[in-house]
Write a structure and sequence with these properties.
Blueprint: E1 7-17, E2 23-25, E3 34-42, E4 44-49, E5 52-57, E6 60-66, E7 70-73, E8 82-90, H1 92-105, E9 108-110, H2 117-129, H3 136-159, H4 164-175, H5 182-189, H6 193-204, H7 208-226, H8 231-237, H9 243-254, H10 258-263
Antiparallel strand pairs: 1-8, 2-7, 3-6, 3-8, 4-5, 4-7, 6-9
């Protein structure tokens, strides 16, 4: 049975192509179903999908669902070489999530702007390649964070990058696992906390600090129910400064301690 989040199977931190021998026909890669997410670091590649040819320049990501009638390859007309990193996901959850993102935003995703989605995806690829994730749930949380960061940044670009509430929401999803507060995130976004709090609540019906707190506690609940991580480890993985502060916030929101929630 598929896990609740798409799970990666293989990742490579840096790969490169220099000639036309680099050509992958996704209709000829067997019957096993999986997703390829490939992010260009330098140079440019190409992706043929549904009869169209797309360039994949630096900062862009191609999404292929194998098996399908598509191909990605190196073309010397674009650059001297194509440098990229990639990650594969297997299972129905992966196909549904990344397939839905591709249908919404296209087969080549532009993550080159200053938003954090490209960095978050890169951290996921590096972490899987280096086997840094200690357990299924920790890895699943990283996958979920990378996918959502991509979705939010692309959605924000469609709506207009000048939308301050959307920019802050994107930043919250990128940084909620770090020990930062809303004041620091607003400063990072380049606007005052008072202004962003106003426009954020008008757009989403909730204060940004409450949104950040909800995101952290929801992630903590998943760790409590699906992992064997200690309370201290969960606190640090969800942006809390320590177990004591995490426990106080959790009790205020849920009426019970993290340990009681786990053992219920």
């Amino acid at each position: 049975m598929d896990p609740p989040f798409a799970q990666p199977t293989t990742a490579v931190k840096a790969d490169r192509a220099k000639n036309a021998s680099y050509y992958w026909d996704n209709s000829k890669r067997g019957k096993k179903r999986y997703v390829i997410v490939q992010q260009t670091l330098q140079g440019c590649g190409r992706f043929r999908f549904r009869g169209r040819e797309f360039r994949v320049p630096a900062g862009s990501v191609l999404v292929a669902l194998v098996p399908e009638k598509s191909a990605y390859y190196f073309c010397g007309e674009d650059s001297e070489e194509w440098v990229f990193r990639w990650i594969n996901f297997e299972g129905d959850s992966a196909l549904q999530l990344w397939g839905g993102l591709r249908e919404r935003f296209g087969p080549v995703l532009d993550l080159s702007r200053a938003g954090g989605a490209g960095r978050t995806l890169g951290r996921l690829i590096d972490g899987v390649a280096d086997r840094k994730f200690g357990g299924l749930q920790v890895q699943a949380e990283a996958v979920h964070s990378a996918f959502l960061s991509c979705w939010l940044q692309l959605e924000n670009m469609q709506e207009g990058t000048s939308h301050p509430a959307a920019n802050l929401r994107e930043l919250i999803h990128e940084r909620y696992q770090d020990t930062v507060n809303i004041k620091e995130l607003c400063a990072e976004a380049g606007q005052s906390r008072e202004h962003l709090a106003r426009v954020f609540k008008k757009s989403y019906g909730i204060e940004p600090a409450a949104y950040l707190r909800h995101l952290r506690l929801t992630a903590a609940e998943r760790f409590l129910l699906r992992s064997n991580l200690s309370i201290q480890d969960i606190a640090l993985r969800t942006g809390h400064v320590g177990a004591a502060q995490f426990t106080r916030s959790f009790i205020a929101a849920n009426g019970k301690s993290p340990r009681a929630f786990r053992n219920r």
